[in-house]
Amino acid sequence: MKKLSLLPVATIVGLLFFQGTPKPEVENYPVHPALAPDMPADIKAIVEQKCYGCHNAESKNEKGKAKLDWDAFEASKKSKQMATKGKINEVLVDGDMPPAKFLEMKPEGKLSEAELATLLQWSAGKKKAAE
Q: Per-residue pLDDT averaged across 69-88, rounded?
């Protein structure tokens, strides 16, 4: 007599059960999914204003999109996020972002000293000091 494996049956039953489970609705989700709920509001605001235009999945700036895609950032694993934040910190410290060529066309894209300090603190993984 052959023994039947329960694994295929359990898999099918599981798939049928979870397929009908509705996904929870998220209220007040940001315009850009990459800038999701666990990103601090101050970082989200800076990224939205100064970085997202070149670093998103729909950007025509292929080089900027390839180096950093905010749409993929939040969906990535925490270890990849930490590595990405390290790279962000490096280019900010080196003064490579935003690039000088971009700032010639759009000087409003320049990071203020406060914005730069905030991004550096976040990308280095440091907590804000109590205010």
A: 88
pLDDT digits (tens, 9 = 90+) for 7-28: 555 445 444 444 444 433 334 3
| DSSP string for 12-70 | HHHHHHHHTSPPPP-TT--SSTTS-TTS-HHHHHHIIIIITTTSSTT-S-HHHHHH--H
Name, in order, each residue with C-beta under 8 angstroms of 50's C-beta and a sequence gap of 6 or more. 98, 109, 111, 115
Please state, rounded to an integer, the average pLDDT across all residues of the chain. Answer: 76
Q: Is 53 within a domain?
A: yes
Domain of 35 in residue numbering reads as 28-123
List the one residue out of 125, 121, 60, 128 whose CA is nearest residue 92: 121
Token pair 């925490």 is found at: 78
- Report the predicted TM-score, pTM, of the whole model to 2 decimal places: 0.66
Structural domain contains residue 119: yes
What are the tokens at 1?
Answer: 């007599």
- Give Cβ neighbours of residue 84 (< 8 Å, ≥ 6 apart): 68, 73, 76
